[in-house]
Amino acid sequence: MSSTTPSIDVIVIGGGIAGASIAYQLTKRGQRILVLERHLLGSGSTGRAAGLLGQLRGTEAATRMMMDSLRIVREVEGRTGRQLFVETGSLRLATTPERAADVEKHVAFGKSLGLDIDLIGREELRRIIPHMRADDVLTASHCPTDGHLMPSELHDAFVALARAQGAEVRTRSPVEEIAVRSGRVAGVRCRGELIEAPVVVNATGPWSYLVAATAGATLQTCALGHYYITTAPDPRFRVDPMSPAVRDHDHRIYSRPEVGGILVGTYEAEPRQYEMADMPEDFDMSTMTAERDNMTVALLVEAAAHRFPFLENDVPFQVTHGIMTFTPNASPLCGEIPGAKGFFHCAGFSGHGIVRSPAIGVIMADLILQGRAGYDMEALRADRYFELPGFQTRAEIRAKGRTAYAGYYGGKKDPKKG
Ligand SMILES: Cc1cc2nc3c(=O)[nH]c(=O)nc-3n(C[C@H](O)[C@H](O)[C@H](O)COP(=O)(O)OP(=O)(O)OC[C@H]3O[C@@H](n4cnc5c(N)ncnc54)[C@H](O)[C@@H]3O)c2cc1C
To answer: Is 365 near ligand 1, meaning CB less than 6 Å away?
Structure first.
């Protein structure tokens, strides 16, 4: 059967936040966009995210991207009249001398980029976040312009704006295959129908390596479990909803306020691997549950209670479990891979897909329409592992992604190892 929708410029596969942001940016530039979503919009990782936004990253390019993302969020807030960002500020804690040296370097780097960030001591910590334990903190950084995004609201806003600008969005529309003719993408096969377009974007999050494989491409992404707990508001322990977010790498946890309680998540040392090909066709991440006696949850609760001692008082909480998409170096894969011209990938956000999505939409639109982006693409290129030995088999990719995840927060630094 041939296409019933012949006049499409770009097909975006995946109705998560990446696909929605790309559709927003491309329709803004007059492109005719079709978004195809396997199940329901936001039924992947996007619906599970915590949304923490810390602007200062390891490199100037990554930091600039985060600052640009925040500017785009402000623009979307202006266009939709909805609040999408909560500017609570953020703290990064150090409880060992080695981590303190890291935090000091982090602050110096942030200042050199013009970011409003400073070191603060225990007294100030107790004042701005009284529900947090501070007696073991040697030093901390404070960035008052950080905070958290509201993931579902931002996703809805991108979808609404893209639709208002002409995007067509089809749910329950799984793409089964990428059609490639003479080395160029020709469209996609969706429920047996060939839908033609000169450009196709793979924005399918944890499923991205499967979608890439239908075009014969190897994409270095893997699917890893991630957990956080959210406490219910408890009249005995008032949490200011504008309390700063906290990153405590020594205890592998992060936290932010959440409707009168707190959310605390962990980057555990031994994340669980998922094989997305084993998931049912209508798999919805919001149906994932976690057993309370699961080891990761037990360690998370222990670390959370250490940092936030009020949790020791039987404060009710719920556990959220979802799947993240990691790459071997925790940096996303954006762009084409040799073999299928016009087939672009945009996946592997490694726990930062919500906060990166606004700038990533611009990057993908630039790559598709101009062939280059206004950022240093070396760290983001989708072809950076193309035919590179050690990065080709599923076993190799899974092992490397798992190591990247486990090293993200690192846990307590061993002073002997430095
Ligand atoms: C528990 C948890 C906490 C997190 N916290 C944060 C955080 O604090 N900050 C942050 O920035 N990020 C966070 N993340 C990560 C963030 O959720 C992801 O990086 C982001 O949502 C990725 O968006 P995406 O659009 O790439 O993928 P997804 O949201 O997974 O969207 C991909 C979509 O593609 C669809 N799809 C798959 N295959 C097909 C197909 N063949 N045809 C059509 N459609 C298909 C899926 O159904 C899905 O809807 C968290 C993730 C989890 C799980």
So the answer is: no
Indicate the domain borders of the chain: 10-48+152-220+328-396, 86-147+223-326
Which stretch of 39-43, 330-334, 409-413 has the lowest confidence by average pLDDT?
409-413
> Residue 416: pLDDT above 60?
no
| Cβ of residue 334 lying under 6 Å from some atom of ligand 1 | no
Query: Which two structure tokens, joined as six digits, stand for 123?
Result: 């007294």
How sure is the predictor about 6, in pLDDT bands with cuts at 50, 70 and 90?
A: low
Which H or E run includes 306? helix 295-307
Contact 183, 340 (CB under 8 A): yes
C-beta of 50 in contact with ligand 1 (< 6 A): yes
Chain segment 191-214, per-residue pLDDT in tens: 999 999 999 999 999 999 999 999
Ligand 1: centre distance to CA 205 (Å): 5
In the reported structure, the alpha carbon of residue 282 is separated from the centroid of ligand 1 by a whole-number distance in angstroms of 15
- Helix axis angle for 353-370 and 60-80, nearest 10°, is 90
Find where tokens 């969706």 sit.
190
Burial of 344 (0-12, 13-18, 19+ CB in 10 A): buried
CATH 3.30.9.10 is held by the domain 86-147+223-326: yes
Confidence band (pLDDT; 50, 70, 90) for 410?
A: confident
**Identity (one letter) of the amino acid at 193?**
E
The one-letter amino acid code at 174 reads P
Which of 106-110, 205-209, 263-267, 294-298 comes out lowest in average pLDDT? 294-298
Pick the CATH number of 10-48+152-220+328-396 from 3.40.50.300, 3.50.50.60, 3.40.50.2000, 3.20.20.30: 3.50.50.60
